[in-house]
Each structure stands twice: as structure tokens, then as C-alpha cells.
Amino acid sequence: MVKEILPHRVVFLPEGKSVEVLSGTTILDAALKAGVNLGSVCGGKVRCGKCRVIIRDGAERVSKPSNEELNLLAEDEIEAGYRLACATTIGGDLEIMIPPESRGEEQRLQVEGLDYSISVNPFVTKYVVGLPVATFEDGRTDKKRLLDALEDVFGLKNLSIDYSIFKDLPKTIRKGNWTVTAVVWNKEKIISVEPGANPQMCGLALDIGTTKIAGYLIDLYSGRVLGARAIPNPQIKYGSDVITRITYTMGEQGRLERLQQLAVDGINQIIEELCEEIGVRPDNIYEMTVVGNTAMHHILLGVCPKYLAWSPYTPALGSENIKASELKIKMNKDANIYLFPVIGGFVGGDHVAAIAATRMGDSDEVAMLLDIGTNTEIALGNKEGIISCSCASGPAFEGFHIKYGIQAVRGAIEHVKIDPVTFEVKYSVIGNVRPVGLCGSALIDLLAEMLRTGVMDVSGNLNTGLNTPRIRKRKSGASFVVSWKDENGIPRNITITQQDIRELQLAKAAIRSGAEILMDRLGVCEDDIERLYIAGAFGSSIDPKNARIIGLYPEVPLKRVKIIGNAAVSGAKMALISKEERKRAEEIAEKVTYVELSTQPEFMTAYLRSNYFPYADPTRYPKVSTMLERCGVKLIGDGVQRRLIGR
Ligand code: FES
User: Fold this and answer.
1) Tens digit of each residue's pLDDT (9 = 90 or more) over 192-204
2) Rg of the Cα trace of the chain?
3) What's the mean pLDDT in 431-456?
4) Is the beta carbon of 51 within 6 A of some atom in ligand 1?
5) Percent of the chain scored above 90 by pLDDT?
6) What is the maximum span of the chain, computed from C-alpha positions, in angstroms?
7) Average pLDDT of the chain?
8) Distance between CA atoms of residues 326 and 472, nearest Å
9) Is residue 48 lining ligand 1, measured as CB closer than 6 Å?
10) Could you tell me where the beta strands, DSSP code E, fall in 14-131?
11) Does residue 38 line the site of ligand 1, with CB under 6 A?
């Protein structure tokens, strides 16, 4: 007799979603099947420890923890029933609680950015036109009737019209009682014909980043943002950085298509949610502008990204115009999707858009733009010319590879202050709830505050001799307690570890050395930089003063520093509503000279010098040095060696 295999029922709390799965399914896969949001940064490889769940009922009906899993969980967590969802397989009915720190909360949007007032002049225009009714005397075809009317009334000559549109014309014209709305792209081609008068005309500006996808629904008449939505990039389960994703696509067949489909699904989710919220029909979205790094750009188009990772990192394509239906994006099927031009394998359309948004290419002033993300792009120059580079800063400032790092979501500690005498910590939390982790702006604050108060020295070493219970010494390394477990929302102290500091130090050094090389190449010093823009991952919550204390950027007066949030999105919005702005983006891509850091002989020296806080040579940071000295921390400059005195 064949034994019947019965599925097990798994209930996920607090949402109460349930799913039926077979024995051997991991809790992570069950959660995905149930549509439950669960952090899984390493993609289920038992490395990140972000998929913690608590088994409320049925702990005896799951697999035993492996050593790998035990290494990622604290003892009191194991006692409290914590398990890693990706490492635990199901063997019976279960009730599982997803703790707050593991929930994939909706991300906070950076919508402010740098929005100039520009005149709205989109590529798409709507024309409502009445057609002469067909008679025996006027026997023109429906297609000719429409083209003639558009020429007679609006002067539109030589418009093209695709088969996919004219095949429905007879029905559309009669349904509208001989009045139609023609949607025309760039006065060249008809991309939609709708019955009667339909005034709604929207576009979508999209930022497809390695960690998140953000979309902005825009009214193409006024240029007004109607709504915004951001979701984690669903590809993240296949790696948190660009190289891992590219490597993934090189494996067995179908992987590139899988990543492409995930991007398309994410975009469609954003469109669907925005349309529902605002009350817009997806059919009435006629254009989309897309910014993203070169790898995301290629993967979205289903183009092999392999050669982006191989020297000389040549992209397969630059700016492209693609029909929405070709990518299966659920907007008007004949809508145009414009992908920004790229500068190189590691400098993508997002950087082009950010440069365009700052208008640094139009100005006499020398400006520097730092667009901080998993890959940080830096541009330096003015209207005479711009050079740019890409720094492998990694995702540390976005909270990845940091023990208690999370993105800027509800529950993230956003800003931190340390008392220089008692070492007590004050912090603010997004959403004013109990904290569950540290986001990028808090990490910058922490580094600056630890440096200022002597908790950490200029080499990034925690001062383990300090007389405070907040300094913890363990076999695994030292750490500093930011939030005690009885005051936060997780059953552990939230700390910054020595290892976290190393990760941040490397990220900071990558960014600062990139800036140094560009300054060197243009023969520009700190005084020459009249404007310094900081864009990207942190949004507007970064404290520019603290960023300067740790040497994230060259020491320029604070009044010259402008935090511009997601400048790439600003560029995408501008190019959506203005033909001139799109032209500007194309020109910038032509004009920028890319500097490959790995081929610069002085790069390694700059990198090593940038590993210190704020920099190996304190004479390059006179204001920061004076400020630190006032706090009892004296920087002694001798080229590389630093010494911290005063504590
Ligand atoms: S440890 Fe489970 S997803 Fe990373």
C-alpha cells in the first residue's frame, strides 16, 4: 500500500498567514510561499543570521540546529526558541513568530532629493480629436482618417503607427463615437489610441538599485509626483551585491531570466500598488524612465552581464528605448521605457542621472558628487569636464555585514550621541519605537562619537581599557553597547563590534581614496571644491558634520556640503517630464571621463591613508583636528602612524 504523504500546516505570526508544505521544506521557503516578509540577506546560505524566527509551537517537529546555525545565534536566543529560518526544515505542524528585527518592513523613501523647477515638456502628448464619420463619399480607411485628422488639427505629420495599435482602430473609433484620444511619443509615433476623451496621462520614474527598487508615479501634465513606493529588490536573495548577482547569472541556464523576472515582478508590484492607491489605470502610464547601476540595467533587459565583471568591464548597451510589452511591464503595452545611458561597467545610469540632477556639468564651480551605495560613484568637475570613478565601498553603510545593521526602516536607530564623561548613549529611532538595529546614518554618528569621546582611536580600535560596562570583551572580539536589551525591541544588546568598525572603515576608505584619486587627477585641492553633494543610501538623514569627522569626504566647509538624498531619482523624474533634461543626460554620458581606480598607481597609498579616521594626514583635516583636540583627542601627524592622547 502506498503511504499518503500529508502536508504540514505552518502558521506565521503576527500576520496569521498560513501555508501547507511537505516535510523537509525550510521555514524560509515556507515563509516565501506564504507571502510572509522575512529578512534573508544571504539568500538562505546560513551566513547573515537575518532570518531569525521563534518557534512558538512545534519546536520538536523541526530539524536540529547545525553548528553553522548555532554560531549565528546567541545562547539566550536558543533558549527562547529562536531558529534561523533558512537552516531549519519542517517535520510537522508549526506556529512561528517573526520577530520585529526579521520583518522586511517597508523602506522609508527618499523623495526630496534635488528637484529644480523645470518646465514640463514630456515626450508623450495626448491629442483628443474628432474624426469625420465615414460615408460613401468619404471612404478613407480608419487609419488614414486618424492620421489625416491629427495632421489637419494638430499639424502632426508623418506619424507612424504600429500594427498592434491599428488592428484595434475600427472598434476604438466606433466605441468613442468618432472621437478618440491619440497618445503620441515625441511627435513621431502613435503609441496608443483610446475611445473618446481620456485626459489621464502618467509616467513612472524608476530607480532599480541593488538593494531596493523605488518608483514614483508622475502626472505628465503638471510634473507632480502623485505617489511613491519602494520595495526591497526581490533579487536580493541571490546576493546582496552586484558581483554576486553577476556570478549567479553565469551558472546554469535560466538564471539570468530568473533575475530578470524578479526585477519585472518587483516593478509590476510597484505599479500595481501605486495605481491602486492613486486611482490611476496602469494603461494610462505611457512612459517610464529607469536609472540603475549597469548590472541592474543589463539584467532588467535580460542582457548577459558577465563582461561587466571582466576587465575592461565593457557594457553591452547604453541608453535604450524599449516597449513595455517586450519586458512584460504592466503599464500601457506600447509605452516607452527609457533606460539611462551608462558610463562604464561600474558607473551606470543612476550616476548619470545624479550628475544631471546636480547640474554640475553646467556650472563654472568645481563640484564633487558622492553617490553612496553598495558601489559608490564619485564625480568631480564642472562645465569644462567631469571625471568619475566607482568605489567598491560595499553595503556596510546600508547596514549589511554589520551585526545589528538594518536599513532605514521603522525601528532603526537613526542618530546617536555619546556622553564624553559617562559614555551613556542617547539615540533617536525611526518611528519612535523600541530599536531593533542600526541604520547607515547611526553608524556614521557612532564612528564620529566614538572617535570624539575616545571610545575608539584613529585606527578604528575600540578602547577596551575604558571604564564603562558598555565596552564588552568577548572571545569573539570587543564591542560597544549602543542599546541594552531591556530598552530595545530584541532580546539582545544592540552593539557595534570591532568587526563592524573594520567593515565601515574599509567602506569609508574605499570612498575617501576614490575622492583623493580624482582630486589628484584634476589637480584640485579641498579649497577648490565649491560644492560637495552627498547623495544615495542615507537619504537626508546623514549628519554631514559627523561624516566629515570620520573623513568620509575631503574637508570642505560645511556650508558647501549639500545632502541631496536620492539624486538619481531626481534625474529620472526630470528626464521623464522634460525632453531637454533627457538630452542633458545623454550629453553627460558622452562628456564624463571614467577613471578606473585599480589601474591608478597611487590608489593603494591613497587607500591605506584613508583607512584612518579622519585621514592619515591630519593637516588635511584642520577643522576636524581642532575640534577633536578640544574634546581631548590629539591627532599626531607623521604620514601614516597616528597616536591618540588625552584619554
Ligand atoms: S542566515 Fe538565513 S537567510 Fe541568511
Assistant:
1) 999 988 778 899 9
2) 27
3) 94
4) yes
5) 62
6) 99
7) 89
8) 56
9) yes
10) 17-21, 52-57, 82-84, 94-97, 124-130
11) no
Mean pLDDT of 629-646: 61
CA 262 → CA 102, 234, 250, 304, distances in Å?
21, 6, 17, 16
For range 422-426, the mean pLDDT: 96
Say if ligand 1 is within 6 A of residue 41 CB. yes
* Residues 6+ away with beta carbon under 8 Å from 540: 110, 112, 563, 564, 565
Sign of CA dihedral 143, 145, 150, 156: positive
Report which of 437, 408, 379, 335 is spatially closest to residue 595, judged by C-alpha positions. 379
Which CATH architecture describes the domain 124-195? Answer: Roll (3.10)
| pLDDT surpasses 60 at 642 | no
Does domain 202-339 fall under CATH 3.30.420.480? My reply is yes
128 within ligand 1 shell (Cβ under 6 A):
no
Q: Read off the pLDDT of each residue in 431-441 and give the average, rounded to a whole number.
A: 92
Q: Please choose from 29, 48, 53, 68 the residue to mutate so as to test ligand 1's pocket, defined by most ligand atoms within 8 A of CB.
A: 48
Dihedrals phi, psi of 360, to nearest 5 degrees: -65, -20
Does 354 have pLDDT greater than 70?
yes
Fold of 8-102: Ubiquitin-like (UB roll) (3.10.20)
- Say which amino acid occupies 359: R
Cβ of 86 below 6 Å from ligand 1: yes
Please report which confidence band the pLDDT of residue 45 belongs to, taking 50, 70 and 90 as the band edges.
confident
Domain residue spans in the chain?
8-102, 124-195, 202-339, 361-570+577-616
| Alpha carbon of 50 to ligand 1 centroid (Å) | 6
Can you give the pLDDT at residue 240? 74
- The string of pLDDT tens digits covering residues 515-559 is 999 999 999 999 999 999 999 866 678 899 999 999 999 999 999
- What pLDDT shows up at residue 40? 62
Coil/strand/helix, residue 219: strand
Chain length of the chain = 647
| Rounded Cα–Cα distance for residues 450 and 445 (Å) | 8
User: Backbone phi, then psi, for 226, in 5-degree steps?
Assistant: -85, -30
Measured CA distances, 318 to 213, 250, 443, 501, 595 (Å): 20, 21, 35, 37, 18
Query: Is residue 116 very low, low, confident or very high in pLDDT (cuts 50, 70, 90)?
Result: low
Calpha distance 43→37 (Å, rounded): 13
CA gap 574, 597 in Å, rounded = 30
Binned at pLDDT 50, 70 and 90, residue 566 comes out as confident
pLDDT of residue 241: 78
pLDDT value of residue 36: 74
Here the cell at position 606 is 591613497
- Tell me how far the alpha carbon of residue 236 lies from the centroid of ligand 1, in angstroms: 12
Q: Are 174 and 301 in contact (CB under 8 A)?
A: no
- Asked if pLDDT for residue 114 goes beyond 60, the answer is no
DSSP state, 111? -
For residue 640, the CA-to-ligand 1 centroid distance in Å is 39
DSSP state, 62?
Answer: B
Q: Which atom of ligand 1 is nearest to the CA of 40?
A: 3
The residue written with cell numbers 510589452 in the block is 325
CA–CA distance from 374 to each of 209, 400, 613 (Å)?
Answer: 9, 9, 21
Q: How does DSSP classify residue 131?
A: P
Matching CATH topology for 8-102 and 124-195? yes
Mean pLDDT of the 559-564 span: 92
Please tell me the distance from the alpha carbon of residue 125 to that of residue 122, in angstroms, as a whole number: 7
Q: Give the DSSP H or E segment for 142.
A: helix 142-154
